[in-house]
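Batch 3, record 17
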Amino acid sequence: MAKAAASTSRVSKRTKERDAVTLKKLVGLADDVAKKALSKKEPVIDIPMRSRSNTIWDKKKGILEMGDASAARELFNLNQAKQFMQTLLHASTIKSFIEAEKTSSLRGVFYKAKHTVAGTKENTFDTQDESDPILEDLEVSLGALREELHIFAENRGTVVGNLTLVDKGDEIDCRRMGSGGYGIPSIVEPDVIQFKKCEAKFVLHVEKGTVWNRFNEDRFWEKNNCILTHGGGQPPRGVRRLLQRFSQELKLPIICLLDCDPWGHYIYSVIKQGSISLAFESSRLAIPQAKFLGIRAKDQEECDLSDAVKIDLSENDIKRAKEIAAYPWFEGHKGWQREIEHMLRNGFKMEVESLITKDISYVTDDYVPQRIKAKDWLE
Amino acid sequence: MAKAAASTSRVSKRTKERDAVTLKKLVGLADDVAKKALSKKEPVIDIPMRSRSNTIWDKKKGILEMGDASAARELFNLNQAKQFMQTLLHASTIKSFIEAEKTSSLRGVFYKAKHTVAGTKENTFDTQDESDPILEDLEVSLGALREELHIFAENRGTVVGNLTLVDKGDEIDCRRMGSGGYGIPSIVEPDVIQFKKCEAKFVLHVEKGTVWNRFNEDRFWEKNNCILTHGGGQPPRGVRRLLQRFSQELKLPIICLLDCDPWGHYIYSVIKQGSISLAFESSRLAIPQAKFLGIRAKDQEECDLSDAVKIDLSENDIKRAKEIAAYPWFEGHKGWQREIEHMLRNGFKMEVESLITKDISYVTDDYVPQRIKAKDWLE
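Prediction for the assembled complex:
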């Protein structure tokens, strides 16, 4: 039976090929250190800088990217020796994960590497705060994604819609996932997940599970021939990467329905252009074509919503809104400048869930279909 | 085609029957108020008290329950008139949800009811903090669960394993859910979700998605013939209710793998006996037979774990541990008293993920199977 055969080795040929490439990079890093040591040169690892100052806004591509600056991490430097050894320790842990054909979490890597150095009272790592940045250093210096290093994040978010995908050999029909949906895994690379059949014409991405429930209960995806996702707030890497694959491989527009507040705007910003902290992965996570459908600052008036939808902007909201308006890609964007100004002029924010004040299914039956038909969105 | 037919009305006969019962209760509440008013008596609603003092530990059943105390909510009482009207307002909103055959979130109910009373400057509700307790009042006074009132919570948690279930007419084969799993919905009542086929002999419930990933990647559920769930930390209502249904209807042992810390102990306590704030729903959510497999205070020694697994207990941990030890059902339980004392004597806590220090799959290949075989758990 196909199932039994598949379960003896769930690791695909594509995964093995990908792993071979990553392993080569890891061994290359170690070889380089060893070669330098044997030729009596100082062992050094070159680590690209992940600072704000080394983050570049690529206007043409429409994404945040990491610049060329890098720093040498030296073994024979009292300030850097510990980090140097931590880097090699994590590289060795990752090599063992890849060889075992297994994945682990950031916390798992931390525990795996944490120990007291023999004959001393010195710990390799004391807290995970020390460990995570070293992993990011490895990602950028190897040019390998976290997922390629066999590290997963927390899973969050679900999907339903007119799509069949294959996940580790299991065929998942997202049209027949009931009220629960298919849980989006943390690692959604093409060697794990393949798209098999898709009739959907766009993706509707909503902020929260409660809103997703409304759309799924009303079978919005069936009536409007789309895919429906949420990310439980700020979408985790798996959700962002899956949305990007929907955009790039299936050529589907990604339409976001988020709250009209700085947090909603920020979520959109991260989906669209990437974040500073993960700028080195923007090319794999960002979706410059993503659209912001709503909630819009004009909606209280335009949709004739009651005053009940208004939530006063706090001082902090106002501060955040101004910060976001100054983001490089928001800065030159007239539509977004007007949008944020309008929200500030209103003095209130609005949540997607507030549309229930019109009618329980106003958001699914009227608001979203009308806006999509009119192509009334920001992008 | 079956699918097309199902999609025209996804509301099952069972749901309609359940809704008819709830509607009758709602209309009864309103009739009672109207009758009192028309016969010139004072309109009063009797609300069972959800306080700590009215929470009873039922030793025989092994769950926390709500006692018999109740308080009258009067219309002609300046301190209660607003709450009285809020209660009827929410009852009316819920009636409209049931009639529309739709569900909404706590936040949705809040927005639906929020407005300025005509001709005044008085709002029905100002914040959701005011709204949620009124809904709980309705739950207890009607004797109807939140799910029966058509209110869902945030979805969290996933399931895989040797089980086929039906969710709103869609058949979900939890053996073929890849790396992502089936997302556990918020409402898992028998009219929505039916169990179709189950070979599994037990349920392994783990605390976090990252640990669940390890077990799913190692196909623990296939090798050990079980169902695998997680609840993303403290499991939400949907996950607790699903576990209870696995326990009661499928007669499966629920085996919990949680951290060895007060938070892990508390999660277990809530799964097993219910919580004070939701004591009125314990009979539907609590699982007195649930077992605590680990992590155990003895494990660092017994499993020969390195010092790397130790995380010092904070002052707050020690305080919480002592509070939990004094819980009625922990109090009379020798095993649990020893367990908590042992942890306090150790002076450190341990996480499930720390078992990676032995080997990446030690937890799935050795630890859990051995403990289950030896029936080595607390209950």
